[in-house]
Amino acid sequence: MKRNIVVGQSGGPTAVINASIAGVYAEAKRLGYKKVYGMIHGIEGFLQDKLVDLDRYLSDPLDIELLKRTPSAFLGSCRYKMPKIEEHPEVYQKVIDIMEEHEIDTLFYAGGNDSMDTVKMLSDYAKQTGRTQTFMGIPKTIDNDLPITDHCPGYGSAAKYIASSIKEIIRDNESFGAVKPTVVVVEIMGRHAGWLTAAAALAKGIDCTGCDAIYLPERVFDVDAFVEKVKELAKTRHSIVIAVSEGIMTADGKFVCEAGDAVLPVDAFGHKQLGGTASNLCRIIAKETGLKTRPIEFSTLQRAGSHLASLTDVDEAFCAGGVAVRAAADGRTAMMPVLVRANDEPYINWIDLHDIHDIANVEKKVPDEFITEDGCGITDAYLRYARPLIMGELNPMFVDGLPRHIVMKELMSN
């Protein structure tokens, strides 16, 4: 007999992660689960027994539609690193105890690499101790760096936002017919994988000249070559727009944003919190060329733009949640839905399931065939890959001139 389930969110939010929560809720109710609980602030909140019955917020179909249009983490997120099982088994036992207390059969966790590692370790502990509880991952990351899956829910909407914003930046910078060009450096998220920055290439079209250069962390960044590239462009252009990943590194292994005496804070997973790459490069350009510069950092805007979400992305995120629930209902555990592409044009894909052990802690980089030979451009092969992912729109529900979101009262600031 189906009892209850719980779903949580972890890591950096996306414009469509809530669509996966909506998919989990809708499918669980269709299959007859009694309660669908939400973790407040992910596994960290779950360990404090912070749960909410999602019937309070999603019992009306209109609320589900509103949730699909709400960005960020409706349930609240966290960056909590689970300890090693052998060092602190009591943490894992506490998860099991809370699940038993609330009669929860399956825990669903939506997130990226670190979140899938949490699912893996929880399922491993349950198997080692003979528990019946099951654990399922749901892919989510604008970084698009989870392996096995063709792409990740969240990426298409972020790519759509980035390409749209780049077009607008180019249009703005081209408005001025100065003798010397203004150099705009746009910093885009991406620590070790440049999928998001590659999306800047989508801006080019019959109405847009596109970026003049695009730099990904998959290639070593040469500061001197970069300056020479700008000087060369400045000979013939009155507008220069360059996109860079926040995680580009020089040959000595240092992030460009670490230039000078910059000290970067570190999160719970040991990741340096990046930022300032565009500003550092603009300072270098100004010093070496005398050109006017402008740094632009998209920061969290690129993952929060639900007003410009891709309908393809929303639909796939919703379906991924539903597939995870059906798999759990069939007794599966330690799995993650993966997107499988059959064709680019027309775009055809389906959702399969894959063992979480092949996914956790593995990072998928942008392949060589998507990067031009000179290392500062993106090929047509990438455009064929990415274009279908940004197609379609899900119009917001506007109230008082602004998009309306559904918000959990437990998370609202006083």
Quick description:
The protein has helices at residues 17-31, 42-46, 55-58, 61-68, 89-101, 113-128, 155-173, 195-198, 223-234, 277-289, 301-304, 311-329, 380-386, and strands spanning 4-9, 35-39, 51-53, 104-111, 134-139, 182-188, 213-215, 239-245, 292-297, 335-343, 348-355, 398-399, 402-403. With 414 residues, the protein is of the alpha/beta class.
Can you describe what's shown?
The protein is an alpha/beta fold. It has two domains: 4-142 and 307-361 and 391-411, Rossmann fold, CATH 3.40.50.450; 155-304, Phosphofructokinase domain (Rossmann fold). The chain has 13 helices and 13 strands. The protein has a five-stranded mixed beta sheet with strand order 3-2-1-4-5, with helices on both faces. The protein has a four-stranded parallel beta sheet with strand order 7-8-6-9, with helices on both faces. The longest helix has 19 residues, at 155-173.
Q: Could you please say which CATH topology of the largest domain applies here?
A: Rossmann fold
Oligomer: single chain
| Secondary-structure element pattern, one letter each | EHEHEHHHEHEHEHEHEHEHHEEHEE
Beta content: 15-25%
Instruction: Report the top-level CATH class of the largest domain.
Output: Alpha Beta
Distance, first to last CA: 41 Å
- How can the largest sheet be summarized? 5 strands, mixed
Helix content: 25-40%
How many domains, as an integer? 2
Evaluate the radius of gyration: 22 Å
Which structural class do the helices and strands define? alpha/beta
Shape: elongated
Arithmetic mean of pLDDT = 94
Low-pLDDT parts are: none
* Number of separate helices: 13
How many β-strand runs? 13
If classified by CATH, what would the architecture of the largest domain be? 3-Layer(aba) Sandwich
> Order of strands across the widest beta sheet?
3-2-1-4-5
